Amino acid sequence: MLAVKPIELLYVANVISRHGGKSRQDLTFRLTVERRAFEKTVEVHWAGEDCVWRILPAEWICALGPERELWHAHVALFASGDHDSLPGDIRFALRCRVAGQDFWDNNQGLNHDINADSGIRLASTCPLLHVDFQPRLEPGLDFLPITVAVRPTGPPSLVYVRWSTDRWRTSTDTPCYFKRRHWDGASASNARNPNRYGNQIWISHLGVGGAFRVEYAIACETENGTIWDDNLGRNYTARRDRLKVLTLNLHCCQEDNQDAKLSVIAQAIRDLDIDIVCLQEVAEPWNNGLGQWYSNTAHIIRERVGRAYHLHQDWSHLGFDRYREGCAILSRHELIGTDSGYVSISRDPFNIHARRVVHARINVPYVGPVNIFSSHLSWINDGFREQLPRLRQWANEQHSGEVAATLLCGDFNVPAGSEGYDLATRDGNFTDQFLLAQVRQRYEEGYGPPPGPQVRPDPADGRIDFLFAHRDSRMEPVAARELFTATDYGRVSDHTGYMVEFEPR
Predict the structure, then answer these.
(1) Global pTM value
(2) The pLDDT value given to residue 499
(3) What are phi and psi of 338, to 5 degrees?
(4) Is the pLDDT of residue 1 over 50?
(5) Statement: residue 24 has pLDDT above 80
(6) Could you tell me the domains of the chain?
(7) Alpha-carbon distance values, 355 to 343, 345, 374, 411, 444 (Å)
(8) Is residue 262 within 8 Å of 253, Cβ to Cβ?
């Protein structure tokens, strides 16, 4: 299958189901759209036997490489009392509006069509298609259902899925099965298999178990050879939710409208489903060194997220002459071990360069145990040179074979590309994950060189907040986002936040 048009139909389905004496007609459309711009409107214009044209909005499913996107539209219609009230046979065309231009797939002006209750109709460019692809593996899903539509040039002798959960180091071929009464069993429909368009439905299930990711392609063997649906040459990939890690310095209650800004942070954590949040300059009133837990800013954020998060925090010193200042870790996942300790020479709570780091080992589903350190180190000539080696030694001691990753997150008070940054990264034991994710994103979007081990930050990169990963970590950074900027949730601190998304290697 080769998609080259700005908008192009993959398949349409027209199914009438009859449950409990009630009739329902489902219309389903799947299509690809060229990635010309982010903002676009994608619609299905359709009419039933009443000749009344309607507009059905389509929804984005996922990217298909750097050039195409997968879109989907569906509507369910119910008979009010008799079968004739359903749309029946339909005609339709696809429209994409982007950058002030309209692009159509209308079958060269003739419009597409499909008969009532006929099942599925593949586009002429698709002799074989995985018709129910979803890029997300739901939590707890052990068997991935696969539905395949085939329009063979000869009788299929074998339809199968070739798949892998380990980046194709190994693979498995799993057969698909043909059921003549597929539509009856799936939808209580009278549609035939194969149907009047010569389309056949085959089904299978892949035993993915606890795998994070499954990659696959579909083959159909006939007497005329083997045809493949390999998702435009990239294979299909379905995966669990990525691990999202955010680091943010809270500015120790020095912000105007501080309470409102804590709510904005909680909203972002909730909106973006962030798994782990590393916070620095967490504050609570000094109260003669006893603190005041209900005023602790990490505690307030956790309460306002509105979801169950574990919290591990500790304080280091007196901040701004009125606060217990420290670091914290919020996690959606189970904490299987916690610790904290000074990495500075000084442990005097009245010394601003007394720096305590908090550590948690977190059990991340489908990934494994992950070590997280939330750190706030001193400036290069005020303790950083001594604190960094202690932190790295601690992290190395915690990183063992069963650990999937070890991340040093936080405010390191050294600019990207500076002497302090080089001390943290030049031996290759720890690498800048935000930078690597940015480089990967740009490359995949066609804007930059491929990622490499010697990548260096741009001289204009002003970050002093980082997520460094141990070189033996079995996770890789795949996406990055700077948060709490003027245009992304707004400023909440004198620092911005840095979020990185990870997948197992």
Answers:
(1) 0.89
(2) 98
(3) -135, 155
(4) no
(5) yes
(6) 1-123 (2.60.40.2440), 127-240 (2.60.40.2440), 243-504 (3.60.10.10)
(7) 6, 9, 11, 11, 39
(8) no
